[in-house]
Amino acid sequence: MLFENWKENLEPLINKYKGRKHPLHYNNTYQLLIMVILSAQDSDANINNITIPFFEKYPNLESISNSSIEDITPYFTKVKNYPTKTTWLYELAKLLKTDSAVPTNLTDLIALKGIGRKSANVILRETNQKAEGIIVDLHVIRVAPKVGLTPKYEDGNKIEKLLIQKLPYEIWNEIGMAFSFLGREICRPTNPRCDDCPINTHCNYFKNLNQ
């Protein structure tokens, strides 16, 4: 399969999910920042649930910076690795102080504790910033090799690097989340619904099934 055809091959997938909001139920950039940090190695559904009372009490970074780690920790005890994440959030609030100080570029975002490339790319996409990379979450790590875009790697940064090399810039902002939604809804780890996949005719896994 020629990689130069991938833009055309992936168009049905992008069209299916283009513009769909991330599954984290955020209302502003501040909430998104907090939630992407908390969601690492945890489920979006859990983070959506536990942050409701937290955001009622702490509506912005300034309110967190004026509290203490002891004040905010009880809100996160059901989050995986919550002691470390709570410390990150508190230190981040002390550093940035106001919501308007949240970075809008990849370099400054990944300089923050708790923010890796995946989280930074999510923030950039969801806040309509210029793409500087491609979102690669656990779903993309599984789906991209299955389709045939990359070798199978556990390292999301390796997957992202290959996707950046092979895919045109104009689809970077959408293709990561499109693959993520595909993995959540159709290309499941067990019993994938290949017949419902918009790019099954360009998928190595589907082709092997029908050989």
TrEMBL record:
PROSITE patterns in alphabetical order: ENDONUCLEASE_III_1 (PS00764)
InterPro entries named in the record: DNA_glycosylase, Endonuclease3_FeS-loop_motif, Endouclease-III_FeS-bd_BS, HhH-GPD_domain, HhH_base_excis_C
SUPFAM superfamilies, per the entry: DNA-glycosylase
Domain HhH-GPD: 38-185
GO molecular function: endonuclease activity
Cofactor(s) needed: [4Fe-4S] cluster
Domain of life of the source: Bacteria
Assigned keywords, A-Z: 4Fe-4S, DNA damage, DNA repair, Endonuclease, Glycosidase, Hydrolase, Iron, Iron-sulfur, Metal-binding, Nuclease
Membrane-crossing residue ranges in chain numbering: none
Pfam families: HhH-GPD
Family: Belongs to the Nth/MutY family.
Protein name per its UniProtKB record: Endonuclease III
Species the sequence originates in: Flavobacterium celericrescens
